[in-house]
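REVIEWER CHECKLIST
Item 1: Sequence provided? yes
Item 2: Single chain? yes
Item 3: Sequence as submitted:
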Amino acid sequence: MINHFIQFVINHWVLWAALVVVLVLLVLDERKTVSGGVKRVAPQLATNMINHDNAVVVDVRSADQFSAGHLPAAINISYADLTANINKLTKYKNKSIILVCTVGQEAAKAGAFLKKSDFNDVYVLAGGVSAWQKADLPLVNN
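Item 4: Structure as written out by the authors:
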């Protein structure tokens, strides 16, 4: 059986090489997020943190995306404006901050920036607003 597997790998080495490259890229992307000190939280855990730990939700999407639907009580500071508006977040430096974007990529970058700016407890909503909606959790429209 192992001989068949080895023969299969040899016969289809290009596909296996592509698989290895994709897996390495996925691991590096995840490691990049974790190495920035930013943890990902599932929508259910984020809800718990908001309700019981008074976590602050910061939505880093554009104002248009934010007004189309956002997490309850979220603060909107777009990723592009985060550096210029970091002073709006300084009062939350010692609180848990959950960063939200559409799928989690911009929020992870914003989280790394906040960690470098000495924010203590920074999280990213895993899957972003898309995951929030898939979990059947409410959005607020402006």
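Item 5: Key structural point noted by reviewer: The helical segments are 2-11, 13-35, 43-53, 63-68, 105-116, 128-134.
Item 6: Recommendation: ____
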